[in-house]
Design brief:
The structure holds two protein chains of two kinds. Chain A is an alpha/beta fold. Chain A is 33% helix and 20% strand. Chain B is elongated, with a radius of gyration of 23 Å. The chains are: A alpha/beta, B mainly alpha.
Chain lengths: 241, 262
């Protein structure tokens, strides 16, 4: 990695829910072209952290990033009355811009959804819906991309294909990826952070300099995978063989 | 979605059975027709006075339709105002709810005094009854937009207040349509009540007016005939609103038919 100054330097004094501290203070510096994965136990505040970064929750200092962010929530948030094509163009519809139909159709084709552009979300499977939500996120041309378990509903083969697609489509942007899958983090992240404890603390556990996506089945990534697993186990307090 | 034939046939058979029972009871008990006319006599009145009934029904149907239209427009505007302005919520909402404690029917004589014996007083009467269910269901629907959708819209528009109207039109309103449809169905069911009450208090035409006239002349068969026509108009109005809302909500995966699961 070059030593360019970080584009996004986000400082957050922490976050409390109902007076109960959920998140400790954290600082996150993000560079363009960098994918940062955040791992941690369920209910550990990962989604809250993403919402803080997006400016959906008050707390973080500095200029609001809301207008520079593309956000993919854990739920697909597809609007049931719109077709798939209209859903992925929602951003331009809401901003009153002319929709990029050709770009949308090209992306749908790359996601294997070319035949479903005119379908309503209710007719799609969970995995297809997640791919539509991914397409909607990728079409938003924003320098900061926040994704909350974007590949969780996909089968193993589709997941890798979608990870590859995301890596190529998001090249040059700063990406924060929340995931529960260490292999996914090792495959496509440049930095892996762990969020655990109560209140949750954010800390870096690994830097991976090689280009993404990587081959997780190669032995070269084994030490990284082991290190991430060990950190997760230490954080969870569970003893495992 | 239309009612499948066998589902329609069953309630019709039930109705035919009830009519037969009625006919038999009148003959067995030897009831005079001015107390309870047999269905056959009502049928004769329906056929013989068809022109009169159709002319009066046209007036009542027009009152119901216009009352429904204006009441729904007024209710929807109130819901939007309540959503848009905290001031409206604080100053208007408690009054609006409390106003429902006033029996609207008690206002009918006043409405006739203000708006005359013509259609206007009946339309206003129907409007007053329809306004509340539409305003409340739509307001409720508008308030309950999925917070995830709103978060997404906030980020997509960069929290720019200039785009708020588009969020209302493209997310909040469509999301509230199922709630509005329920309100409109309630409204369609009560619209005939408003129109007929208005006609009873003072009118020169309409099915309610005809019923009062027939009642005074002990033409009980004509009264029942007017009642049948009124019921048919009410069912048709409900069916129309039901079909319209189904068309509007075709994206909703689960739509039950009138009769429920088979």
């Amino acid at each position: 990695m070059s030593l360019r100054p970080p584009v996004f330097s986000i400082r957050c004094p922490g976050f409390a829910y109902d007076g109960l501290p959920v998140l400790d203070a954290f600082t996150l510096d993000l560079q363009p072209g960098e994918i940062v994965a955040i791992l941690g136990p369920s209910g550990g505040g990962k989604s809250t952290l993403l919402k803080l970064l997006a400016g959906l929750l008050p707390g973080c200092t500095g200029p609001s990033l809301t207008a520079q962010t593309a956000w993919m929530a854990q739920q697909d948030l597809l609007l049931p009355w719109l077709t798939v094509r209209q859903n992925i163009l929602l951003g331009s519809r809401l901003r009153g811009e002319s929709p990029a139909q050709a770009e949308a159709d090209a992306l749908l084709a790359r996601l294997g959804l070319a035949a479903h552009g005119g379908s309503r979300p209710a007719t799609l499977s969970g995995g297809m819906r997640q791919r539509v939500a991914l397409a909607r996120t990728l079409l938003e041309n924003r320098p900061l991309v926040l994704m909350d378990e974007p590949f969780s509903a996909l089968d193993a083969v589709t997941r890798e294909a979608m990870q590859d697609l995301a890596c190529s489509q998001l090249a040059g942007r700063a990406v924060v990826l929340v995931t529960h899958d260490p292999a996914e983090a090792c495959r496509i992240a440049h930095r892996i952070l762990l969020l655990d404890g109560r209140p949750a603390r954010l800390r870096e556990i690994l830097r991976l300099p090689q280009p993404v996506p990587r081959d997780v089945r190669s032995s070269a990534l084994l030490p990284a995978l082991r290190q991430v697993h060990a950190a997760l186990q230490a954080g969870s307090g569970m003893e495992m063989a | 979605m239309r009612l499948p034939r066998p589902l329609l046939a069953r309630p019709l058979l039930t109705l035919a059975g009830l009519l037969l029972l009625w006919e038999a009871a009148v003959h067995l008990l030897a009831l005079p027709p001015y107390i309870l006319p047999p269905p056959s006599r009502v049928g004769l009145a329906l056929a013989g006075r068809a022109d009169l009934l159709a002319a009066q029904a046209a007036v009542t149907v027009a009152e119901m339709l216009l009352g429904l239209l204006f009441g729904a427009l007024l209710g929807a505007s109130a819901a939007l105002a309540l959503l848009a302005s905290g001031t409206a919520r604080r100053w208007l909402l408690p009054l609006l709810v409390a106003s429902q404690a006033v029996p609207v029917f008690a206002l009918a004589p006043l409405l006739v005094l203000w708006f005359g014996y013509g259609m206007a007083s009946k339309i206003v009467m129907a409007m007053l009854i329809i306004f509340f269910p539409v305003a409340m269901t739509l307001y409720d629907g508008l308030r309950r937009t999925d917070s995830g959708w709103l978060d997404l819209a906030r980020i997509m528009t960069g929290d720019d207040p200039r785009h708020r109207f588009r969020i209302l039109l493209q997310i909040r309103l469509p999301a509230a349509l199922p709630a509005l449809a329920s309100g409109l169905k309630v409204a369609a069911a009560v619209a005939p009540i408003g129109a007929v009450i208005g006609e009873w208090v003072g009118a020169s035409a309409g099915l309610g007016f005809l019923m009062l006239q027939a009642n005074a002349r002990v033409q009980t068969d004509l009264m029942f005939a007017a009642l049948v026509v009124l019921a048919l108009c009410a069912v048709a109005l409900y069916g129309l609103v039901d079909r319209l809302s189904r068309r509007l909500l075709s994206w909703q995966p689960d739509s039950h038919t009138l009769s429920g699961p088979n």
